[in-house]
């Protein structure tokens, strides 16, 4: 993943964590949105889940290309050079 991808994953994880925190009666959502709680286990688990989802999608796309005899495209997807 590129640095830009990492930033997008972090931003998405912040929003997910903040949305969950907003359901509680405290100000934790603001801490997540500000990046103040980027080091928490919950935040890391959410980021890990997002990354796993990206890997799973890439693998599925690469498999589809391979089934259709498109090895070059499949290799590009595996390297992360493929964008929808």
Summarize the structure.
This protein is mainly alpha-helical and 84 residues long.
Your description of this structure?
This protein is mainly alpha-helical. It is 75% helix and 0% strand. The protein is built from four helices and no strands. Helix 1 packs antiparallel against helix 2, helix 1 crosses helix 3 and helix 3 packs antiparallel against helix 4. The radius of gyration is 16 Å and the shape is elongated. The model has no long low-confidence stretch (mean pLDDT 88).
Q: Let me know the number of strands.
A: 0
How confident is the prediction overall: mean pLDDT? 88
Number of helices: 4
Helix content: over 70%
Give, in order, the helices and strands.
HHHH
Distance between the termini: 15 Å
Strand-pairing-aware structural class? mainly alpha
Low-confidence segments, given as residue ranges, are: none
- Strand proportion, as a percent range, falls in under 5%
Largest sheet: none
Indicate the radius of gyration in whole angstroms: 16 Å
Shape: elongated
């Amino acid at each position: 993943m590129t640095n830009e991808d990492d930033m997008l994953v972090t931003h998405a994880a912040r929003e997910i964590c903040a949305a969950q925190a907003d359901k509680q009666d405290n100000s934790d959502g603001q801490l997540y949105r500000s990046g103040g709680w980027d080091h928490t286990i919950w935040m890391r688990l959410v980021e890990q889940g997002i990354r796993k989802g990206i890997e799973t999608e890439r693998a599925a796309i690469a498999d589809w290309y391979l089934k259709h005899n498109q090895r070059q495209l499949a290799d590009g997807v595996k390297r992360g050079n493929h964008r929808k």
